[in-house]
Amino acid sequence: MDKVKFLDLGMQPIANRFLTSSQIDNEFLYNLSVGFDQESCLVTNMDYVKPALMFNRDYAYRGSMSKTMRDHFLATSNILKKHLQYNPKVLEIGSNDGVFLKNWNPFHTFAVEPCGNFANETNSMGYKTYCKFWDKELSEEILQDTGPLDLVFAANCICHMPDLDSAFSAVANILNKDGLFVFEDPSLASMVNINSYDQIYDEHAHVFSVTALQNILNRHNLSIVKVDNLDVHGGSNRIWATLNTTNIDNSVNDSIEFEKIIGLHRYSTFVEFANRVHNSKESLLRILRNCKTYNKKVISYGATSKSTTVFNYCGIGPDLIEYITDTTPEKQNKYSPGMHIPIVSPEEGFDESVDFAFLGAWNFAKEIKNKEQNFGGKFITHVPTVRFI
Ligand code: TMP
User: Fold this and answer.
1) Any ligand 1 atom below 6 A from CB of 359
2) pTM given for the model
């Protein structure tokens, strides 16, 4: 890959590794820099963190924690079912805590999940779950058990895989000749448009444009036949790909044309993006330091992997953000990666003493605003620009 660096987000920890007090002294850190591959137009991290360091039995992110995502995967399942025969054979790669799987028949639905804690959960829910990383060897093993599949689905998972050629050739290997490969990941167009540089962290080895995906999928006889633009995770694309391409929906060319208009095929677009990221850091620090000067209590809402990038890039620690609230039991009473801000439950920490809450989970802003109508303070966000809301 001929990739050229455009952004350096400094030293960063494992974004989803929330720490106990005994773990904060010897934390793994790496340099998070992002580059542009001139050949495929892929935006990709300059160095990849070893997947086993991130995806293991301690993995803390639970897809089913938010109503938005539960509703989203129910709706996605209903859409997909309309395109499949009765009782299709389905595989989900990266099944997390089963938030998508639970909408499917366990007798015909299989899963791949390298995080042992979640693989155990979905195995006990009745879905045969292979606790391994997705590759050609695993696709062979599953093929022996299940035969070719009608649907391979992955959400927020393909972008985690450093070697996309290996991932896509394994999908092509297991898919029935008329089968569907559908995957959703954060969209590069959205990231550039709303300056959400916190889409970049260790797990997100790449942030995808449709243009780059088409270039890489084509190497494995897979073609994109449809693109759905989604609101989830701050703007995502749902990519529909098949081996046997007959009908290509207009959404494919529309997406690629739009990406050309906003320059996602050009390195210079990302240099400009990097400048905006730098300005965003300066503004956020200015606001938080002002709050401190006026003795205001500032916390963060949602201990997200995205906020790991923001806090470590900007150097925001407990001096500026007193603590973080999060609904996930696995994150509570721990410390945030890198900057070691304490995490507590919303019941404990989201009360009338809070003047300002930084929206770490800005991608759930709608759900949070609905839930927190009685909040007397103000939220702070950095997306698309740094401001109070
Ligand atoms: P994500 O942005 O990586 O999906 O993570 C969202 C995190 O925010 C997850 O840990 C759950 C947390 N969260 C809350 O604490 N309260 C909420 O109301 C919502 C929607 C999410």
Assistant:
1) no
2) 0.95
